[in-house]
């Protein structure tokens, strides 16, 4: 149906297996055998790269793909998963992608989590409307990329390699980011965080923060992210005061002194929340900057807040100056930069009376603005600053401008947090992923705390419950699990990631590195595979209420001993093992079916098995 509505405006291009490629007039698609970097990149993804050329760069253009459904089950795309069908009808699936929202790439998966067809389009800075879904009349899947401003030359990578979805998605992400730089990594970005947001919302002040500092450090956190509420007019959950980015002196009479005390006495780095594209009508900056912010936030004229137009050079300079001033004046260790996606309001709108330095294209303007922000922050920080973006700023093309990407808000929803984290890990090859801030009720049991932390285990956890409000059981669980996380951080963040069940929300996730394996079981019926030829230490999280976990040891068929302890979520040892078992022989597949190598170990709910395999 979607293709029918635009078929008369398209012409046929080359084919890729069973895939038809089409494009609008003036846009040509051809095999890219001669394109620089294309052969190696295509080989990595197991596909083919096509050259896309436009007769009139800057004019709109369309690229379309269509292919048979096969046994497809889900269309995976970058950023947050939609709440609707996993494989929508082609009249329903649509997302505007840009530098700060998702990315022009996707992967159609079958019921075994294997790739049916995946694609990536190299032009990721400007807005592209991606329409996708099932053509119900022809049992086909269709993707249409409506490019607002076609570049003169771009590339399209297609792969129908029947590999595991996670591997294919990672390969496409590397291809998209192959020509981009990397923001330096801050060591503090790899440490657990205390976030003030869910703990306090906007009701945060220096006295409370300093009173909690020892408790925050005692949990295992090494930085404090001070969210919305520190700034003047930061109350009432509105944004009418945004724009000046100075402290609320009633809450923080001396912000620099508070930051210094947290650092020097408590060993905590401070990161401030800022939304530099927002201009509130109550701010002093409003009179000066209002001419460059004609559109209201979220299109709501009554919200009391406007969005600065990044296409204006004066706006880009203003944003960079705000970030530099915050770093310099208060001695902070970084910024949590929010609401960048509001810039999309200016896409496609004419730029009236352009001045020197103004640019027409929102994507190019955002790239220029973020480059300015990166440069001034690096210049103002003694080391490397923490720069946090959040989903949906997930494109590989935005990696040069931040070193942290956080799963988007999903308060107290450990399952959604896990899915968003793992999805983000597959595309964030150059940034560290943080989980959404973790929230649980202070009067709940220790398992409520453990469930949230375990859902965030394959990212950097951000705790957002006041230490003084936790029960002693919750504090014990938080201290223990964050200590376990830090002990295995190199594997969790830097090792190979192997998620199982992309279409089912990742009920089993494993990471591997330097002879160790960390696996988390989030649902019943999962079996943890352990290759005895490469795994000497095994950590298994029973991130569920099941009373046991199942292992399958395999490799070369030799006998091994599985020894170690089962801990409850507070760290107490509840069971100890030292058992011999014959691993299944991978060279003779029949042994696995007969039950060789299977081991079922009792495990407390939300407990941890710390094992050696020798």
Q: How are the secondary structure elements laid out?
A:
Blueprint: H1 2-6, E1 10-16, E2 19-24, E3 27-31, H2 38-45, E4 48-54, E5 61-68, E6 72-77, E7 93-97, E8 105-110, E9 115-121, E10 128-135, E11 140-147, E12 153-159, H3 165-176, E13 193-195, H4 197-200, H5 206-219, E14 223-226, H6 255-266, E15 269-274, E16 278-280, H7 286-289, E17 295-296, E18 305-307, H8 313-330, E19 334-337, H9 362-380, E20 386-390, E21 404-406, H10 414-427, E22 432-438, H11 446-455, E23 460-463, H12 472-487, H13 489-494, E24 496-500, E25 508-513, E26 516-521, E27 527-531, E28 537-542, E29 548-555, E30 559-567, E31 573-582, E32 584-585, H14 590-593, E33 598-602, E34 607-613
Parallel strand pairs: 13-14, 13-23, 14-15, 15-19, 19-20, 20-21, 21-22, 22-23, 26-28, 27-29, 29-32
Antiparallel strand pairs: 1-2, 2-5, 3-4, 4-12, 5-11, 6-8, 7-10, 8-9, 9-12, 10-11, 16-18, 17-18, 24-25, 25-26, 28-34, 29-33, 30-31, 30-34
Helix pairs in contact: 2-3, 5-6, 8-9, 10-11, 11-12
Describe the protein.
- Pfam families: Melibiase (PF02065).
- The protein is an alpha/beta fold and 614 residues long.
- Among the domains are: 2-176, Sandwich (Immunoglobulin-like), CATH 2.60.40; 496-613, no CATH class.
- The chain is flat.
């Amino acid at each position: 149906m979607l293709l029918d509505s635009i078929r008369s405006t398209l012409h046929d291009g080359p084919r890729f297996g069973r895939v038809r490629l089409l494009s609008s007039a003036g846009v040509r698609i051809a095999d890219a055998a001669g394109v620089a970097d294309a052969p190696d990149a295509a080989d990595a993804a197991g596909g083919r790269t096509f050259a896309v050329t436009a007769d009139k760069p800057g004019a709109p253009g369309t690229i379309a793909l269509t292919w048979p459904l096969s046994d497809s089950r889900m269309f995976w795309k970058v950023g947050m998963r939609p709440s609707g069908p996993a494989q929508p009808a082609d009249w329903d699936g649509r997302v505007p992608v840009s530098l700060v929202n998702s990315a022009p790439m996707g992967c159609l998966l079958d019921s075994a989590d294997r790739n049916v067809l995946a694609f990536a389009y190299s032009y990721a800075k400007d807005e592209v409307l991606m329409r996708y879904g099932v053509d119900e009349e022809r049992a086909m899947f269709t993707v249409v990329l409506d490019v607002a401003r076609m570049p003169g030359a771009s590339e399209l990578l297609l792969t129908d390699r029947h590999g595991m979805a996670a591997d294919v998605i990672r390969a496409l992400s590397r291809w998209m980011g192959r020509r981009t730089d990397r923001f330096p990594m801050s060591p503090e970005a790899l440490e657990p965080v205390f976030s003030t947001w869910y703990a306090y919302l906007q009701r945060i002040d220096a006295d409370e923060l300093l009173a909690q500092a020892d408790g925050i450090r005692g949990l295992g956190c090494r930085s404090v992210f001070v969210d919305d509420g520190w700034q003047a007019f930061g109350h009432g959950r509105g944004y009418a005061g945004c724009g000046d980015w100075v402290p609320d002196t009633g809450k923080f009479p001396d912000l620099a002194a508070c930051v210094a005390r947290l650092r020097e006495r408590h060993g905590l780095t401070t990161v401030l929340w800022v939304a530099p594209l927002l201009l509130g009508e109550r701010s002093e900056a409003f009179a000066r900057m209002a001419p460059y912010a004609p559109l209201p936030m979220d299109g709501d004229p009554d919200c009391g807040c406007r969005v600065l137009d990044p296409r204006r050079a004066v706006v880009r300079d203003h944003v960079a100056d705000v970030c530099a001033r915050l770093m310099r004046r208060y001695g902070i260790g970084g910024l949590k930069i929010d609401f960048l996606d509001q810039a999309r309001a200016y896409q496609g709108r004419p730029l009236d009376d352009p001045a020197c330095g103004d640019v027409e294209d929102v994507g190019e303007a955002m790239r220029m603005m973020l480059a300015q922000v990166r440069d001034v922050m690096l210049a103002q920080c003694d080391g490397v600053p923490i720069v946090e973006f959040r989903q949906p700023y997930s494109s590989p093309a935005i990696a040069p401008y931040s070193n942290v990407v956080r799963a988007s808000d999903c308060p107290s929803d450990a399952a959604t947090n896990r899915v968003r984290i793992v999805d983000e890990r597959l595309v964030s090859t150059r940034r560290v992923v943080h989980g959404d801030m973790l929230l649980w009720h202070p009067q709940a049991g220790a398992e409520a705390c453990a469930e949230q932390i375990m859902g965030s285990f394959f990212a950097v956890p951000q705790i957002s419950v006041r230490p003084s409000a936790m029960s002693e059981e919750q504090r014990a669980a938080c201290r223990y699990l964050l200590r376990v996380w830090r002990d295995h951080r190199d594997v969790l963040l830097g090792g190979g990631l192997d998620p199982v069940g992309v279409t089912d929300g990742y009920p089993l996730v494993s990471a591997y590195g330097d002879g160790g394996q960390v696996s988390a079981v989030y649902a019943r019926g999962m079996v943890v595979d352990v290759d005895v030829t490469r795994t000497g230490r095994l950590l298994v999280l029973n991130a569920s209420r099941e009373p046991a976990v199942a292992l399958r040891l395999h490799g070369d068929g030799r006998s091994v001993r599985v020894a170690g302890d089962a801990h409850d979520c507070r760290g107490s040892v509840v069971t100890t093992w030292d058992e011999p078992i014959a691993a299944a022989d991978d060279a003779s597949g029949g042994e696995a079916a007969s039950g060789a190598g299977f081991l079922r170990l009792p495990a407390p709910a939300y407990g941890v098995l710390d094992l050696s395999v020798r």
